[in-house]
Amino acid sequence: MKKRLFVFVLIACLSTAGLALGQMTQEGRIAGRVVDGQGAPLPGVSVKAVSPKLVGAASTVTDADGVYRLMALPSGTYEITFALQGFKTLVRQNILLELSQTLALNVTMQEATIEESVTVVGESPLIDVKSTVKGQTMTKETYLALPRGRSFDSLISTIPGVQNESITGGISVDGASGAENMFYVDGADITDFHLGVKGQNVVLELLDEVKVTASGYNAEFGGSMGGVVNVISRTGGNEFHGDLMGYYENNTRLMRGYARDYLRTNPEDDYLYEYWNNDTQYFRDGRDRDNYDRFEGIFSLGGYIIKDKLWFFTSVNVGYDRTEAERDFNLREGPFSTFRERNYGYNGSVKLTASPFANLRVSASFLNNFTKYRGTLPSITGTDDSEYEYNLEGMDYPNWTAALTADYSLGNNGLLSYRAGWHRQNENNQQILPPDGSTYYFPYSNSIYASDPFYVANPDLVHSGGYATTWNYFETQKYMTEKVSNNLDATFYLSAGGEHSFKAGVGYAYLHEDVLDASTHPRVWLYWGRTYTGLGFPVGRGAAVDSPYYGQYGYYYVRGSFTSPYGGVWNIHANNWSAYVQDSWTIGGKLTVNFGLRTENQYIPAMTDDTSYVGYNAKPVNFDFGQMLAPRFGVVYDVFGDSSLKIFGSFGIYYDVMKLYMAELTFGGWKRKQDYYSLNVLDWRLIAASGDLADAASQGAGGTYAGTVDFLPPSFDRVDPDLKPTAQREISFGAEKKLMEDLSLSVRLVQKHLIRTIEDVGVYVWDGETLEQQFYVTNPGFGVSRPVSEGGLFSDDYWRCPKATREYWGVNVSLEKKFSDNWQGGVNYTWSRVTGSYTGLASSDEGGRLGPNVEQDYDRWFMGYDALGNVLDGPLPQDRTHYFKAYGSYYFPFGLTVGVTAYGRSGLPLTTKLYYNGKYFYPEGRGDMGRLPFTFWANLYLDYTVKLGAKYRASINFQVDNVTNTKTIQNRISEFNLDGYSGYDDEILSGDFAVNYPTYTADEGDTHPAYNWWSSRFAPWTARLGVKLSF
User: Fold this and answer.
1) Can you name the CATH fold of 21-121?
2) Domain ranges within the chain, ordered by starting residue
3) Distance between CA 816 and CA 22 in Å, rounded?
4) Pairwise CA distance, residues 600 & 658, whole Å
């Protein structure tokens, strides 16, 4: 760690001396042309920009063509001054620049005989006419007037094409899953590279803005097949400002609505389904609910250390919630005891922003996000284990990010930029630890030997089947992941047939995981009177009496032993590189053509150093630069040349940054070895008595070691030699129109086509005598997963392994009004359709399961088909045809702000799911059960503020989520059967199964009694109270 810290600091120091590394572009640009009254260019004009968000000032001088460029500007409201001797000084005020935006601001200066100035307020260009990027930025001024959650991503679902769905494993952008986005805080990549989801949380009150980019990004951006979420933390300024805030909520009837009915299984009969309401049945109509309270406090202070040179911002954010509940372990018959669950959050930030000398701006920030929980609650039904120490359970989750940026402007024609980030998260300090010694489990009872004199003398050592000395034998000592990212880019401008903005960069990311989540001592499984044959010969009672593996009392095996730990154990790193070049060419002042090329080199490391495995490779999946060439192309046309209307189109190939979760299961991360022994002692306590994982003699004290079975061997020898990276093609068209000074309309059409994905495919290999299913890391439908007749390994006796398909079509129409005349607002509509066979890196077929590249989609040959052999190609589970969204706020002169967000959306499609041969499939194809009903709901925010003198303000706020008290059904039971059953492949291949599966299911007694019943409704309304003191 010291070495990484040294490297991080060294690079940071070098950057401030003029080196430039670059990552996500955080800043914007204001550029244009200055002419005189006759339209002739004016060289030598002094251009100066100031803003409350800009430390110091940005300045430049127009060139011979009258062109100026103010680069690396943070978002905010600007005042720009144009001055030239002999001309009236021109001041443009209230120029609003958003995150990563380029504004074209052309001005005309008038001659003057005396020194005078002209001030123009407003007339700010709203539209970036240089870019095809489509997304939306929400500033602090916008979201602090709206109902919001306690996370920076809680409001981005108001953006067209963006929705937060549990079924997709998180935020879905343009039909993608929640594991296909990229997240940045102050330029630092905080994406969890193990699973692909958000790696850190920051509350909105401590941010300046949040931007979501959905499509059309240039070659400098990569790694996302969904969206890019970019978060900028607050900065200081030339004045001191601070806030003291508090929030409170509970679950009393005053702050939470009546509980919804839901479908449950009867606690005493798993085959009996019934509608239930906890408030009605358990809590006297909600009057005696579990006691729940949540408190949150925030303190922030920003200002300057040196005016116009060095600013600071610091914050502390502490949260605490507790639930106190009465529970029993006797089906609610009592006696009851009190249990408590407590969650703590210790968050904070520090940010320094500096302009040490002209043309250089530097920013450094640190954000902490430490959480922990203590205690958990037993089931409300009274069916849990009474022996477990619920009040003692707990875990810690340290999490922090350090970010550094530096931008150096080279006059009018160049920019050097540096972006570095270090994000680290962990899971440790497990509160309930396993015993300090070996543990034992009895799959079968040893009572068959109860008459033996030893057990007669020691009856307490005789146990029934299912007995365990403890169920807790794992300890998560650490689950640490960290990413150190550094990128370098440079931008240069020149004129050649128009204006060219050349940009090139190189990026490097160091990934590190250090995990110890395993059995801390041997776990012994005792099979009394049994025989094991998995080693190819009998071990235990069934072995010949003269065999060394004969077990007088059976056999046993050990998990966590001298041969291998048992659980998640790895300490690995990976180094990913990227590079890009791009040019933005503006022709004739109206037409801009963007074209570029991005390439990356990334690999999945082995999570074991045991080179004895067949085909061992330290980099089992390794994509070089030539395999990840991603072209980007876009065209933007400024129709009238005044930034009031643009039309645009873009094309791009995007590659996924592979998640390391695959290596956990496929390349040796999880160790699942079991050592087998004959069992020749009745005193089972002698086995592994030392408790030492490395003590072979102690582990073998009960018999003779027969061998080891690896139940999860790495698949180094089963990686497709023709494997290609997961990729997606995107095509988009659109238009944006400035309707009024603060009002804009945009339309976007986007099509996203999944080119291929990577999965562990169950390939059915026929060697001429036997048929064996072997799991290969491959692109489904390509390479080894093709039929033998096409050069693959998949037996021709089965339906062809289908290619992964996902097609997204979307049309967004959005009307946005910036804050003016006391109000702001936006309304948008999305028509979309996402179809195919593959739901994404987080599987909506499995309820949002996060298992990137090792989902279940291709675990059986039939899973990509319906029962008639048609490839699945219908609406995917995350498909919503219509989505209406609106937000707005109004400020009344007497101090009241009213904010509203409202949503209306189509229901999700439902598909009959049948559990069969250990997996599932969709016998009727996708969407056969129709859709869930359309849902509308709204949230309300009220804030009343009073001024306390010239500097202080106090406010109280109240928020109600689901103020409409919507109760619409949100899910139905789509499972046709309960447990699943087994059958023959020929039944499906012949077509018999398609006709007879309802009968087969009924004959097995497995038909789901609640098939197609509704199971849940929209959650009840909830409220939160807040106070705030600003100074």
Assistant:
1) Immunoglobulin-like (2.60.40)
2) 21-121, 264-289+878-1031
3) 31
4) 11
